Amino acid sequence: MSIGFDIISDLNLSPEDSFNWEGKATSLYCIIAGNISSDLRTIRQTLLHLSKHYQGIFYALGSLEYKNAISIDKRTEEIYKVCRSVRNIAILHQHVVIIDGIAIAGANGWFGDLVIPDLITGMEVEQHRNSDLLYLRNTVERLQKHLDVKKIILVSNSVPSPDLYFGEEPDDIMTQLSLGIVLVSDTESKVSHWAYGTYDKIVDTSVRGINYVNNGYFNRKPYWAKRIEVNI
Asked: Do residues 105 and 140 touch, judged by C-beta distance below 8 A?
C-alpha cells in the first residue's frame, strides 16, 4: 500500500497577500514545514483554505510564526487556539499522528538560518532548540517499538543538518547541535522521509536511505506541491 503526502512550506504570507490552492492538491494529506505567516489571522485563513482541499493537514510551526511574539510558549498557545477552529489540522508540536502504519512527527527545531523573533531572547530559542531535539529523539526511539508503526515521516521547519544546505550553510550554525542527531534513535530504520523548510532551494535527495524533501514557496511562481509516496 502506498500513501501520498503533499509537501509545502515557507509561504511567508502577509495579510495583504493572496493565496489560492485551487486545483493544486495531489494527495489526500498535506504536510506544512512551517513559515506560513507571522500574522495569526493570515495563518487561520490559509489553513482554512487548505483544509478545503485536504483530508488532513500536518503542520510544523516555523520561526516566522513567532516573529512578533513576546514568548515562544505564549505564541504556540495562540496558534493552537487558531487551529482548533479549523477542521483537519494537526499541529506537530509534542504530538504524533499515525495513519495506516505511518507515524508523522515534527518540531520547529530552531536550527540554522531562522527568522529571528524580535522580542525573544537567544537563550529562550536555545532552550526550545534543545527541547525539540530531545522530543524528536525520544519520539523516534519510542516509535521503534510501536508495532503499528512501519514507517516514520519527520517534519521540521529547520534544515536537519548543515549538509542539506549544500555548501550554503550560515556560519553561526557550526556551534549548534543539528537535528539529524535524532536519527541515532532510528535503530529499526523506520524513518523513510524528512520534510523540512527554511532553505530557499528545492531539495529531493536521499541520504543513507532517508528521502529529504524541501519545497519552499519563497514567492516562486508557478508553485506546486511536492508529492511524496510512502510504501507500507
From this structure: yes
| Alpha-carbon dihedral sign for residues 43, 211, 136, 101 | positive
| Closest of 215, 210, 213, 111 to residue 159, by C-alpha | 111
What the block records as the C-alpha cell of 193 is: 522521509
> What is the structure's pLDDT at 173?
72
The pLDDT of residue 177: 82
> Following DSSP, what letter does each residue of 116-179 receive, concatenated?
--TT--HHHHHHHHHHHHHHHHHHHHHHHT-TT--EEEEEESS-SSGGGGTT---GGGGGSPPG
Report the phi/psi class of residue 109: left, alpha or beta, with left for phi > 0 and alpha for psi in -120 to 50: left
pTM attached to this predicted model: 0.96
* pLDDT (tens digit per residue) in 126-152: 999 999 999 999 999 999 999 999 999
Q: Tell me what pLDDT residue 175 has.
A: 66
What stretches in the chain show pLDDT beneath 50?
A: none
CATH of domain 2-231: 3.60.21.10
| Alpha-carbon separation of residue 62 from 26, 34, 83, 186 (angstroms) | 23, 4, 15, 24
Class of residue 112 by CB neighbours under 10 A (exposed 0-12, middle 13-18, buried 19+): buried
What are 228's three cell numbers? 511524496
Across the chain, which distance is largest between two alpha carbons, in Å? 47
H or E element at residue 43: helix 40-51
